[in-house]
Design goal:
By secondary structure, this protein is an all-alpha fold. It has 14 helices and no strands. Belongs to the binding-protein-dependent transport system permease family.
Amino acid sequence: MRTRSRWQRFKESYFLHDFLHDKVALTSFIILVVLLFMGFAAPLIAPFDPYDANNINIMDSEIPPSWLEGGQSQFLMGTDAQGRDLFSTMLYGMRVSLIIGFGAVALQAFLGIMLGLVAGFMGKKVETLLMRIADVQLSFSTYMVAIFISAIFQAAFGVAKYEEIAVPLLILIIGFAEWPQYARTVRASVLAEKKKEYVEAARVIGLSQTRIMWRHVLPNTLSPVFVISTIQVANAIMSEAALSFVGLGMPVTQPSLGSLINVGFEYIFSGSWWITMFPGIILIVLILVINLLGDWLRDFLNPKLYKG
């Protein structure tokens, strides 16, 4: 009898069947893929490069979208206050927001999974110490930690230096602020898994604690991590947008969805509503489809919620 390949098993799985028959999840996934492609392929599909000073003319500032009176055909969604093509700037800004979102979640997941796994598997003293550290971390909101670190860095090293490393610094700040979410979830899963028969069987045959922890327990604790990750990507993107809106996120010279909304907000009452409106719509749609996918994944992986 021929062994089916992984791809064949995947095509016949309940996961794929349920996903393809869930219109909300499928539509959300398609929209997310389109947004991801547009963001990461920005240098290829954007009409202008917002980082190239040769493409920017201050005399072109606040031009309305092309379909409105006063609009120009080369600026589909108009221009911002600096004269940059808004459509191109949004694509580049979305790429920055996505990089920060996925990068921060990768850092959160790495720290949280490692510490949660050790806390749940290594015993009472280690568990107590790590979970108290997590509790202290959770007592500070993400925005408080981010504002505190960003403000100190800008005051100590200057705005110019901050602009150079804004992306990795925001990934570090947002990622470090949210790792306890993963740690607490993984710890709870580990505490349940290590009491099961397969762990006892692994101990009986002489496998080391480290091997049991990494090779056997860890893979069985990752289902809730996938659900948390979808939600945390949306939260990280919102955190970056919120920080940019208050001036402690991405600088104006390196557009993100949040910084575009922040800059455009100053002009919304003067009639240049598109500078804020279009990046705001993209941000809302991006976060919405990620959250909808996260809800579907949560329902599918939870036997109490999944109805088939």
